Amino acid sequence: MACAEFEERLLEFADLANGERARVDAHVAHCLSCREFLEALRTVDSQLTVQLAGREATPAFAPAVRRRVLHEGSAVRPSLVPEFLDFVGWGAIVALLGLVAWWLTPLVHLSNIRMTVSLNAPYVAAGAFLLAAFLFGIRSFADLKH
Amino acid sequence: MEQEIRACLDRKRYQEAFDQLLPEFQNKVFRLAYAMVGDAALAEDMAQEVFIRIWKALPGFRGQSALSTWIYAITRNTCLTALKKGTAKRENSLEEPNVARAVEEAGVPAARHAEIDVLRFLDQLPERHRQVLRLYYMEERSYEEVARLLEWPMGTVKTYLHRARKELAEAVARSKMEKGTV
After folding, report:
1. What's the pTM?
2. Which of B40, B48, B99 sits opposite A68 (nearest CB)?
3. What is the percent of chain A where pLDDT is above 70?
4. Could you tell me which chain B residue has the CA closest to the CA of A11?
5. Between 20 and 30 A from A116 (CA), which of A58, A91, A122, B62?
6. Top-level CATH class of B2-85?
7. Contacts of B182 in chain A (CB under 8 A)
C-alpha cells in the first residue's frame, strides 16, 4: 500500500514534470511500501502493454466480412416507418395536451370544481396513462427501427 | 478519410463507402469489442457482426454525428446486447494462443511472464474497470482515445483507470510478497 500522499503521483509517474518526479523519487528512495507499489505498477504496465498494445484483427477478418456482405446483398434503403411513427407519437402528445386543456378549462368557470375533479380524475388519469404508455411504445419502436 | 466516405454516401455509393470504411475502422472496432468482451476470437465475431450492421444501416446514416461516433456506438451496442444475452462469454484471455505468441514475439522471457500473471488479476476487477484498462493499453495509453471509443467523460475514464491500475498493482505487490520475489 503506497503512502496516500504519493499514490496519485505514482499512478501518473511517467507523466510527471521533472521537479515533481525528483520529489517522488526522493520519497520512493526511502519508502519501501511506495517502492513496492511503483515496482508492481511497472510490472502491470509492462505486461499489459506487451500483451495488449496495438492488437489487431487477424488477416482473415476483412475477407470474412466481405464474404458476409456479399451474402447479405445490397445495402437496405431506410424505411420511412420510423418517421411516420415519430409523427404519430408527437401527434398523440399534442392530442393528449389538448385533451387535458379541454377537460380543465370549464372547471375554472364551475362552482363545484372539487366535485368534478373527484368524479372524473380516475378516468382521466387512466386515460392519460394508457395514452402515455401507447406513446412510449410507439417512440421505442421508432427508436429501434432507427 | 471520413470526408471521402461521407462523399460516397452522399452519392449513394454504399459499396464504395464500405470498401473505404472497413480497412479504416476494422482494428478500432476489433479493439473496442475486445475491450468489452475480453476474448479475441469472440471480439472478431462481434466485429464482423458490427460491420454487417453498418453495411445494412449505411443508407440510413444521416451524418448527424461523426461517422466514427456512429460506428463505435454500433460496436458498443452490439457487444452490450451480446453480453446481456450471454452469447459473449468472457474468458481469461491469457490462455489464448495469440497472446502467448505476442508475448513470445515481443521477446519477453517466458520465466518472467510466468512469474506474475497480471491478466489473471484482471478478471478480479469490475467489468468497467476491465474494459477501460484493456482499451487503455491497446490504444497505447491514450486517455482521449479510450474516452472517445467508450463515449465516457474523460474524468470517468481517468477515475476508473486509476482505480483499476491501483488494484492491479496492489494485487501484484501482494503476489510478489507471497512468492518472496521482493
Report:
1. 0.67
2. B48
3. 76
4. B162
5. A91
6. mainly alpha
7. 36, 39
